[in-house]
Amino acid sequence: MARSGNIFNFDLILFISMLILMVLGVLFIYSSGINSSGELVSNEYLYQIIWAVLGIVLFFVLLMVDYSIIRMWAVVIYFFSIFLLISTLVLGKSVNGARSWLGFFGFGIQPSEFAKISTIILLARYFENNKKGVKKLSVFLKGMFLAVVPMAFILVQPDLGTASVYVPIFLTIAFIAGVQKRYIFFLIAVGSLTILIGVLPVWQLYFIQRQIAFVQVLTNPFLFRVLGGALLLATVSAWVGFLITKQRYFYWIGYGLVIITSALFASRMVGKVLKDYQIMRLIVFIDPSVDPQGNGWNIIQSVTAVGSGGVWGKGYLQGTQSHYRFLPQQSTDFIFSILAEELGFFGSVLVIALFALIIFRGLTMIFSSKDTFGSLVIAGVVGMFFFHLVVNIGMAIGIMPITGIPLFFLSYGGSSLWTALIGLSLIQNIYVRRYHY
Fold it and tell me: Is residue 327 exposed (0-12), middle (13-18) or buried (19+ Cβ within 10 Å)?
């Protein structure tokens, strides 16, 4: 039987961290709208305040809804989000080359952001319903399919950055649910190796500038088929050897060969799916000086802004990179760069510490919840927050490719802000009712 619990008995540390980050977000979105003459040329901060106030109302409304009701409606919520993603492809408007936005009464929403939450909820319910058979490969694959469906629609937009967030969401939930670790490692290994093989031809063209035998094999259609055929033959032979002899070393040889073969063929698809600007982002990530006035400009200016902040920063509203408009998407993708320039290392550590508190409290709540569904929902939200934090800040300091992933609470945008607030409301909802199930 569902119980409401005391909604004001939530985790105060998590709530205060959230509020501080939202205040910092408004402050630095305001700063991003100041030009070199000290004039305010953007009212984005006003919209952010409105979204923040409405978002806090939404936070408490969801906190009052027992999460067992959310579990019950998980399938409906998921398919509604898929419907919105399909509608976006048909009716949405294009922003920065991606058809990611739906307009309602003059306001735009990004369904791919909210679909993260619906996917977390459905995956949590799915793995809870299949906890007795969670070690089975079929259970793992079906769960992966639930994450791949929204990913596919988002990739078509195309929005590679947002689509990539669904990978850590799925892997985190699957890990906490107790799936075989070798399945998780397989996905991580195939994904990493696919990217590595996929960028090798670009690496040879722009950086080595001489022919490498292995890369020639990858780019020559005939040699690629020969290599692929040899790997397939070796893989089949290893698995046949395991089936006949039952020797474990044949199993692990076959396992490794499947990873290599899958990555090899997936790398061919990467070259056909990725757009030119996405490939250039990988190139300038390796070396921004390849295109310093074009695709490399973002990284160069962002790193310059972060580095110029020093220990204590230049002071609030005293930044130069943003006020002279050197930073593109400075209120969204590169909001951390403005903060680091104006508040320095101290301010950067403060922001990271606040996110660390949220993530740490989330991790402790995973194990304090007596309910499998609740634990898995928290795991998905924590995985989402961690990925956004690492990728966005990594992007700002030049150790991650530019993907367009926002920094929750700080980056301008109602959809990402509400997604973060809904995620934390779910965590608090489960925490408040941790003894009721």
Answer: buried
CA distance 113 to 108: 12
State the DSSP H helix or E strand holding residue 101, giving kind and residue range, or none if neither.
strand 98-104
Structure tokens at 69: 């009701």
Q: Is the pLDDT of residue 2 over 50?
A: no
State pLDDT tens for residues 414-435.
999 999 999 999 999 999 887 6
Q: Number of structural domains, the chain? A: 1
Alpha carbons within 13 A on the beta-carbon side of 195: 12
208 near 215, Cβ under 8 Å? no
Q: Look up residue 363 and give its amino acid.
A: L
CB 179 within 8 A of CB 135: yes
In this structure, the number of other CB atoms found within 10 A of the CB of residue 278 comes to 17
Q: How many CB atoms lie within 10 A of CB 322?
A: 27
CA distances from 179 to 47, 123, 128, 343, 389 (A): 43, 13, 12, 43, 25
pTM for the complete prediction? Answer: 0.91
Return the structure tokens found at 334: 């590169």
* 1, part of any domain: no
Token readout for 363 is: 């991790």
Residue with tokens 């199930």, as numbered in its chain: 437
**In a domain? residue 6:** no
Quick check: is 2 in a domain? no
